[in-house]
Structure formats: structure tokens, C-alpha cells
């Protein structure tokens, strides 16, 4: 087989027409179409909630469409189970790749379709040899006998890809495959995509990163609010046009930072230490200020914030809130003192999936909505209505399970929950990680509005444009210590990176 | 529908389904229909069933176990479990017996029973909430421990000869056919309903059961609530111990053997998810009635005890599987 240059005459391998899917109260997909061509990468682009994950689940047999047809090589097919999708040659590499940590690399690759001996037992020798061959073919130097839990995330992706090849997949779905990868690993992945293209696979590539889309995609398809908007060749479109199609309006200003009126100190932290995570942290935060915290992953930023919020206890140090010196020993005390924390890990630490939206919003404010320890539902709904509207939440009803919302909307619920406590300090840990451009802009906009109203904001972020675009001042952390602080003209990408990796001024850059 | 992306501050409705409609489509409703069905079947099968005094006698089948099941339901909703409840009854009953031998009056006996329950619950709670041990392991351990202490104290013997006034808790009647235990059952059904469904404490129980990490990140004192739930379960076991000891008029170390599983059965039959996070007190109340009615009805038909437990087991699996089967058949 050989690579097919972009050509309009090749018929698609996989073709979806008029696909609709509804969940209670939500129309996730409304008559969408999608074509995947052999030897080509099609980028599927859309905001969170546009229906990308739903289409992936339909293609892999996890969801059944309510309406519409799926065709492979022009013949209609159905995927009632994940097995059926696999048999038809469709395979997916997910955001959180579904593999088994306790099994070996070879077992993971061949689970469900292991080679058998004549007696019907698993042919281990053949399995290992075949696994080794597949791994080599994608340039992965991994031992098939190693247990998966001993591998890094990038290697796990390679195993997932080898698995995709082992079932002789014709359609490979990559759902944000680079989200957890380092720079070098991303480039290796790009090479791999080229290899897969050369083998004639049709690839569906889902990503939020435009540089990556323009780097490897041949075609694009845009969904918005569960509807098909447009498709075409990547060479015929610009980044701006794609963004406009995604959000249905032009995002003219990405960082809507307003000039802040910086007031009195609200929070003064001094000498905060932790036995293993951080040392001698001290800073002052003012009313109306957005203070950025930049650093490499593992620099201890989240750990400091979680100590301020009472999740972990500092071994030394004090913090002053307004005029009171306090030691915060529990999250309940932090909330009482007016410090709230929007965590990075929304799914685990933020939203309580399984409970309705309004109960999530009122959770830390129950003492206000209740009377004498007894719930008052009308008060809860009033509070939830108020704050979800301010954040422009999109949901079918306030009684809906938070787990059914898209990532961006879950984040809005978590932010609403904390604003409802009327805090003095709000700490946002990677507030826009993994959410789409439209929701990102909404979060940024709201952040500056809060600061303008006098709230003190701490924003932990690993994205330099975001840190520079939103912050009045930036603290850079390295290896658990404050490495530098920048304000005004000194806030440049170069200065931030130097401080984060530890290159002193004047050393060779 | 809601697609216009420009509109801001749109109004989101509070609810799409009214609470009444939701209640009609609930698990509790299905269980209630089952209960009515069993009631009708029983009254057709035996002429003695519809006698008020017989029904009143039958209520002793479930009242004591249900008292434990109420607290157990809250524990299981919070994602924990207590398998030591029956052993707490044994230890509490033994402690009461020892106090009785020492000549303690009735109020002191009751206080000893409840106090032992609270202490046992606090011990479980401490190990789970303070030291972070898994509750299923801790309470399997204390299940042997508490009953073991009772065996050491009593061996093959028994405490008998409780004072006359003590008998009222398990044998007395408040009015007409309404026994003290039945009134206690109704009272605690209301108390636990309010506690779980109408208070901040109850809300925290659901939150912890659904996502304990997010609960902690929301300022809920997760460990304190877990501890309190174990103490509450211990207290309810203590109350059950007072009632049961009073009704039997004696204490043996084998008292209430196997009740922990019956309490858990009641809770699960009542629609509480064994994984935590969902369930309700009305469900547990109806489940208690269902189990009581089945046991009593089969007793009237002279079905032996072993067969009865087979039927209860089949009932549990049947009722749990019913909604799933229903959905599969409709497809």
C-alpha cells in the first residue's frame, strides 16, 4: 500500500450520514455527517459539548445512534457492541487510553483476539513474537513481557497504537492523543501518524491544538452544538475561519484582561514549608489583583495552593487574611476564611458526579441556604439559578446530573459553587485546561470581571500566553521554591521560562 | 432547543420532572407494589393473616433489624459498611446481663446497652475515619472481636432473670395492637427520613458517597461525618440490643447471629446502591415491611426456616434484577 495524496476521487472508507443521538434533556448529535478517507487524517474540530466524544462512542459501538446510517466501503453496517466495531476494523486511542495496567504489553495488544494453539489455549510464543513485530513496525522499542504499569504514558500510547494495528484496523480514531505527552513524544507520535497514513489507514484526529491540526491533518470537519457545520481540505482553510466556525462568532480578543484597580493586601503568606513539596513560600495578594503562578509540572504550585486551602497541612509558616493571622488546618476553615480553590482535576476533586447541578452549586453554601441544619430547597434553587446564569451555564435543568455535562460546563458549575460562597480569594488551578476556545474565553472574561469587582485571584497555569495575558503579576516556582517574580515589562515569555528551568540571567540561553 | 451561542444568562429550568412524577416512577414505588402484592397473596393464602394481633406479632420479625438497617442505609450511602452490628448486639446484651447480675435497675440496664453500642460504633469509626482503614475489613474484624468478648464472658452459659420492668421494651404495647417496638420503628423511620433527606448532614452523606475527594475539596468534614455515622450505627445496634434482650428475656453469646446480613439485605432491597451514593429511607422502610410480610406469610403456611431464607434470597435477587430484565425485554 502507499500513501494517497489528498484526492477527492477516492471513496471514503467510513461514512456517517444523518447521525442523531439524544440523552435525557440533551440532544448530543443532530443529523451529523462524517467521512474518513484511506491514507488521510481528518481532524474533527469543535468546542467541548459539540458532540465529538459522542461520535467517537458511536463509532466504537459504545453508544447506539437514534437515527442515521454508518457505511464502510459503501455498505451499511451497525455497531451494536464494541466487539462489532473492532471486527469491522474501527479502533480508538482515547484520551485516557483504556488499557490494563496489571497485564503485560503483549497481553494488552492481543486481549480479546490472542493467537491460539490447536488445543484452544493461548499461544504465548506466537503472541510475544507478533507483539514484538508490531512494536518494531511503529518504531517502539518495548519489551512485550513488561507489565503496563511500569511504562510511561507515551509508551502506553504506543501500546494502544500497536493494539490498533494488531486487529488490522482500517479506521483509527485518535482522541486528543497528545494531551499528556511531552514535546519529544509528540513528534514521535506525528511520525507514527505518517506511518499509519502510508499504510492506508483512515485516521480521525481529535484535538484542541491548532498547530497540531495544521501539522498533520489532510482534511477537517467542524461540529458545533451537535450539528455538522462544514468540512474540507486543510489547505483551503485558515485558523481564523476554523475558530469562527467552531464558536459561531469571531473570537476577536483572546485575553480580555481589564486594567485592574489594585487595592489593599488580602492574603499574606510567609514562610510556608512542607516536608517534601515546597519550602519558604511567601507572597502577598491584593484586592482586584490576578496573580499568576507559572512553573514546570511538578514545581509544587498545586501543592502550595492545596496547603492554602487546607487539603494538606504546612509544616511551618503562617498566613494572614485581612487582619487575622490564621493557620488553616482544614478546607472548612479555608472556606470560612474566604479562600476557595477550583482544582485542576475537575472530575475527581471538583464536580460531584451523580448529584444534580443545584446540589453541587450549594454544597459549600449550605449553611446559608439552610435553616437550623435543615435544607431549604427553594433557597438552594434560588442560589443555583443566580450563579449558573452569571456563568452562562448550558444545561437542561438544574436538577440534571453534573456528570452529564461537558467538561467546560462542569468547570462552570465548580466555579459557580465557589463564587456562591462570596470568597475573598479565589484560586484557579489550570482553569482552562482541556476546555475549548469558546469556554476558555468565557472563563477568562469572567476572571477579569471578578478581579474588577475587587476579588483577589490566584491563577495557576502552565500556558505562557494565558499567564502573560491574564496576570497583573507572575510568580515563577521551581522545585518547590519561588524562583522569581515579574511584573510589568519584565513579564516576557523568555523571563518566565528561564526562571522556571533555572537559567540565570547572563548564562548561555 | 438550546443552541444559540450568543445569548447569555439564559434561564435554566429548576426541574424537568416534578418530584411527584419522579416518586411515581421510582424504585420505592415498584417495591411498594410488590409489598401490596405480597399482602394480598398472604391474605388469600391463609385465613389467619388479616388478624390485627397476628400482624402485630409478625412485626417483631423486622422491627429490631430495621432499626439497624436505617443507620446501615446511611453508612452504605456514604460508601461505608458495618458488618459488626450483630456482634455489637451480642456485646451490648452481655454487658446488660452483667449489669443485671450486679443488681442494676432498669434505666441503668438501658444506659449500659446503648452506651456499649455507642462505644463499639466509636471504635469502628475511629479505625475507619482516623486511621483510614477500609470499613469492610475493620468491621469483619470487630465482628469477631465483639462477639468473641461476649463468648469469653458467657461461654456456654446465659444471663437470665431480667427484672420484670425490663420486659416492656420488647414485649410491651403502647396502645391496642401497637407494640413499643412497632412505635419505635415508626418513630425512627421518621427521624431517619428527616435526617437523611431534609438536613445538611444527610446531604453531606450523599456527597461523600458519590465523591469523597470532591467532598473534602468542598469543605465537608468527611472524616467527622464518617465517624458520626459509625457511632449512630452503634447506637441503633444498642437500641436493637435492648429490644431484643427484653423480648427474649435472656442473653446468650449467639444472640442475633447473622443479623448483619439481614440488615444489609433490607438496605439493598430498599434500593440503596451497595456502591454508595444513592438510596432512600422510604425504600428501606418498605423493604423491611416486605421482608416481614414474606417471613410471616410463609410462617403461617408452615414453611421451614431454611426454605424461608432461600425464598428471601431469591426475592432479593428477583427484585434487584426486575428493572434490568424489564429494560432488556422492552428492547
Automatic annotation (TrEMBL), chain A:
A GO molecular-function annotation: ATP hydrolysis activity
SUPFAM superfamilies the record matches: P-loop containing nucleoside triphosphate hydrolases
ABC transporter domain boundaries: 14-250, 260-504
Domain of life of the source: Bacteria
Keyword NADP among UniProt keywords: no
Alphabetical list of PROSITE patterns matching this protein: ABC_TRANSPORTER_1, ABC_TRANSPORTER_2
Membrane protein topology class: Peripheral membrane protein
Cellular component, GO, one term: plasma membrane
The keyword Transport is assigned to this record: yes
Main localization of the protein described in the UniProt heading: membrane
Stored CDD domains: ABC_Carb_Monos_I, ABC_Carb_Monos_II
Compartments (UniProt record): Cell membrane
Sorted UniProt keywords: ATP-binding, Cell membrane, Membrane, Nucleotide-binding, Repeat, Sugar transport, Translocase, Transport
A Pfam family this chain is assigned to: ABC_tran
Stored InterPro entries: AAA+_ATPase (IPR003593), ABC_carbohydrate_import_ATPase (IPR050107), ABC_transporter-like_ATP-bd (IPR003439), ABC_transporter-like_CS (IPR017871), P-loop_NTPase (IPR027417)
Name of the protein in question: Ribose import ATP-binding protein RbsA
Species, as recorded: Gemmobacter lanyuensis
Gene: rbsA
Automatic annotation (TrEMBL), chain B:
Spans traversing the lipid bilayer: 29-50, 62-78, 85-102, 108-129, 136-154, 174-196, 227-249, 255-276, 306-326
Principal subcellular localisation of the protein: membrane
Membrane topology: Multi-pass membrane protein
GO MF terms held by the record: transmembrane transporter activity
Subcellular location field: Cell membrane
Free-text function comment from the UniProt entry: Part of the ABC transporter complex LsrABCD involved in autoinducer 2 (AI-2) import. Probably responsible for the translocation of the substrate across the membrane.
Quaternary structure annotation from Swiss-Prot or TrEMBL: The complex is composed of two ATP-binding proteins (LsrA), two transmembrane proteins (LsrC and LsrD) and a solute-binding protein (LsrB).
Name of the protein described by the UniProt record: Autoinducer 2 import system permease protein LsrD
Organism: Gemmobacter lanyuensis
Amino acid at each position: 500500500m502507499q500513501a494517497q495524496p489528498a484526492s477527492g476521487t477516492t471513496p471514503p472508507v467510513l461514512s456517517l450520514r444523518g447521525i442523531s443521538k439524544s440523552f435525557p434533556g440533551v440532544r448530543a448529535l443532530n443529523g451529523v455527517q462524517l467521512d474518513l478517507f484511506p491514507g488521510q487524517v481528518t481532524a474533527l474540530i469543535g468546542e467541548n459539548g459539540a458532540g465529538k466524544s459522542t461520535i467517537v462512542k458511536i463509532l466504537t459501538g459504545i453508544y447506539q445512534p437514534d437515527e442515521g446510517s454508518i457505511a464502510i466501503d459503501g455498505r451499511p453496517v451497525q455497531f451494536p457492541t464494541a466487539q462489532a466495531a473492532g471486527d469491522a476494523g474501527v479502533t480508538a486511542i482515547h484520551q485516557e487510553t483504556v488499557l490494563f495496567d496489571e497485564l503485560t504489553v503483549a497481553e494488552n495488544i492481543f486481549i480479546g483476539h490472542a493467537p491460539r494453539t490447536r488445543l484452544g489455549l493461548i499461544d504465548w510464543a506466537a503472541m510475544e513474537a507478533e507483539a514484538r513485530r508490531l512494536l518494531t513496525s511503529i518504531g517502539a522499542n518495548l519489551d512485550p513481557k513488561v507489565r503496563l504499569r511500569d511504562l510511561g504514558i507515551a509508551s502506553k500510547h504506543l501500546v494502544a497504537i500497536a493494539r490498533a494495528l494488531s486487529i488490522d484496523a482500517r479506521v483509527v480514531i485518535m482522541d486528543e492523543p497528545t494531551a499528556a505527552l511531552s514535546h519529544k513524544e509528540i513528534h514521535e507520535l506525528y511520525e507514527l501518524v505518517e506511518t499509519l497514513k502510508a499504510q492506508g489507514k483512515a485516521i480521525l484526529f481529535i484535538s484542541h491544538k491548532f498547530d497540531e491540526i495544521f501539522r498533520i491533518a489532510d482534511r477537517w470537519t467542524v461540529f458545533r452544538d451537535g450539528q455538522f457545520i462544514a468540512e474540507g481540505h486543510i489547505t483551503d482553510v485558515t485558523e481564523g475561519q476554523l475558530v469562527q466556525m467552531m464558536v459561531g462568532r469571531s473570537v476577536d480578543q483572546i485575553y480580555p484582561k481589564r486594567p485592574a484597580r489594585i487595592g489593599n493586601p488580602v492574603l499574606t503568606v510567609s514562610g510556608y514549608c512542607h516536608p517534601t513539596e515546597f519550602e519558604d513560600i511567601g507572597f502577598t495578594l491584593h484586592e482586584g489583583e490576578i496573580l499568576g503562578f507559572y512553573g514546570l509540572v511538578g514545581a509544587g504550585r498545586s501543592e502550595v495552593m492545596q496547603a492554602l486551602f487546607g487539603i494538606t497541612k504546612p509544616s511551618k509558616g503562617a498566613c494572614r487574611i485581612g487582619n487575622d493571622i490564621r493557620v488553616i488546618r482544614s478546607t472548612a476553615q479555608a472556606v470560612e476564611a474566604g479562600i476557595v480553590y477550583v482544582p485542576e482535576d475537575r472530575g475527581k476533586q471538583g464536580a460531584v458526579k451523580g448529584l444534580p447541578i443545584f446540589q453541587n452549586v450549594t454544597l459549600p453554601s449550605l449553611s446559608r441556604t439552610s435553616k437550623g441544619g435543615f435544607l431549604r430547597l427553594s433557597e438552594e434553587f434560588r442560589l443555583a439559578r443566580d450563579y449558573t446564569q452569571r456563568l452562562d451555564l448550558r444545561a437542561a435543568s438544574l436538577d440534571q446530573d453534573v456528570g452529564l455535562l461537558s467538561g467546560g460546563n462542569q468547570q462552570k458549575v465548580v466555579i459557580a459553587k465557589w463564587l456562591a460562597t462570596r470568597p475573598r480569594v479565589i484560586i484557579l488551578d489550570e482553569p482552562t485546561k482541556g476546555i475549548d476556545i469558546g469556554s476558555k474565553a468565557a472563563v477568562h472574561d469572567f476572571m477579569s470581571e471578578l478581579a474588577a469587582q475587587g476579588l483577589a485571584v490566584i491563577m495557576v497555569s502552565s500556558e505562557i500566553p494565558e499567564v502573560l495575558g491574564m496576570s497583573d503579576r507572575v510568580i515563577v516556582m521551581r522545585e518547590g521554591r519561588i524562583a522569581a517574580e515579574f511584573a510589568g515589562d519584565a513579564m516576557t515569555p523568555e523571563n518566565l521560562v528561564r526562571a522556571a528551568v533555572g537559567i540565570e540571567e547572563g548564562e548561555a540561553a | 432547543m438550546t443552541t444559540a451561542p450568543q445569548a447569555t444568562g439564559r434561564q435554566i429550568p429548576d426541574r424537568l420532572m416534578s418530584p411527584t412524577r419522579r416518586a411515581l416512577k421510582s424504585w420505592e414505588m415498584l417495591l411498594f407494589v410488590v409489598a401490596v402484592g405480597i399482602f394480598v397473596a398472604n391474605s388469600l393464602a391463609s385465613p389467619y393473616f388479616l388478624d390485627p394481633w397476628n400482624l402485630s406479632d409478625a412485626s417483631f420479625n423486622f422491627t429490631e433489624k430495621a432499626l439497624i438497617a436505617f443507620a446501615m442505609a446511611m453508612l452504605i450511602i456514604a460508601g461505608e459498611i458495618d458488618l459488626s452490628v450483630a456482634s455489637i448486639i451480642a456485646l451490648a446484651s452481655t454487658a446488660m446481663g452483667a449489669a443485671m447480675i450486679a443488681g442494676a435497675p432498669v434505666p441503668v440496664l438501658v444506659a449500659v446497652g446503648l452506651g456499649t453500642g455507642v462505644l463499639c460504633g466509636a471504635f469502628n469509626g475511629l479505625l475507619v475515619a482516623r486511621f483510614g482503614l477500609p470499613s469492610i475489613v475493620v468491621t469483619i474484624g470487630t465482628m469477631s472481636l465483639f462477639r468473641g468478648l461476649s463468648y469469653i464472658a458467657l461461654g456456654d452459659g446465659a444471663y437470665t432473670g431480667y427484672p420484670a420492668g425490663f420486659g416492656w421494651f420488647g414485649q410491651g404495647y403502647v396502645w391496642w395492637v401497637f407494640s413499643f417496638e412497632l412505635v419505635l420503628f415508626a418513630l425512627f423511620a421518621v427521624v431517619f427520613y428527616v435526617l437523611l433527606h431534609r438536613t445538611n448532614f444527610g446531604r453531606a452523606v450523599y456527597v461523600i458517597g458519590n465523591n469523597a475527594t470532591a467532598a473534602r475539596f468542598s469543605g465537608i468534614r468527611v472524616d467527622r461525618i464518617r465517624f458520626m455515622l459509625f457511632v449512630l450505627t452503634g447506637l441503633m445496634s444498642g437500641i436493637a440490643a435492648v429490644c431484643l434482650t427484653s423480648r427474649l428475656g435472656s442473653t446468650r453469646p449467639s444472640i442475633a447471629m447473622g443479623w448483619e446480613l439481614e440488615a444489609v439485605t433490607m438496605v439493598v432491597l430498599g434500593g440503596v446502591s451497595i456502591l454508595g451514593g444513592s438510596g432512600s429511607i422510604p425504600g428501606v422502610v418498605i423493604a423491611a415491611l416486605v421482608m416481614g410480610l414474606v417471613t410471616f406469610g410463609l410462617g403461617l403456611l408452615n414453611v421451614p426456616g431454611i426454605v424461608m431464607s432461600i425464598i428471601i434470597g431469591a426475592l432479593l435477587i428477583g427484585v434487584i434484577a426486575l428493572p434490568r430484565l424489564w429494560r432488556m425485554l422492552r428492547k
